[in-house]
Amino acid sequence: MPKHAKTDIELLKTWTLSTAATLGSSVRAKGILQEIQARLPALSKKSVVLEGSEITLAMPASDKAAFSAAVAVISRVMEEAETLPVIPREIEDILTIKTSERHRWLADGRLPSAGTRTVRLNGRARQITFHVFDPRIVEDLLDRGAVDEWREEDIEAKAEKRRRAAYQAKLTRSLKKAKKASEKPRSDADEAAPELRGWEEFDVDGLLR
Q1: What domain range includes position 22?
Q2: More confident site: 208 or 13
Q3: What is the per-residue pLDDT across 35-46, written as a single tens digit (0 to 9) for each?
């Protein structure tokens, strides 16, 4: 076989992501792929692809050394996959929640943070910092349907807040009305009216002359 023909032969290796690693999320699977790519040299990043739950590395036979190095990196990430922190877009997909819900439940402590991560945006100098989550806790929340419970709690809390606000508004209006009535000045005519009945008759008698 001619020597140049050997370069057309690809070196292939495939890994399968477990459900425990992806938590049933395609977004999580893509996140694991991105974690792999972040650890690979620039020349090897595009040699790794994700199809469904399978990650495949394909390189020319001439890149055997680079292939072996990439296999080692990917294998290490695959071993860590089930314990890799869950990032915001992943937890939103896994739990089927909105960004506003994630922020609210993180702020009130129902959604525990496993720390923060700071990354630099591709092609930009700006960095962003965000909370990450323990995959085992996320799995537990998913299994016991915690999100449905939290949404019910939020609905009840919102209704109670409206009731309190309505009561407070009514009380405030009553107090203002009472205060306004008590502070209303009485005119001189109002004060003298009871004492001036029959004034005309008194004046006719000439008693004031």
Answers
A1: 7-82
A2: 13
A3: 999 999 998 999
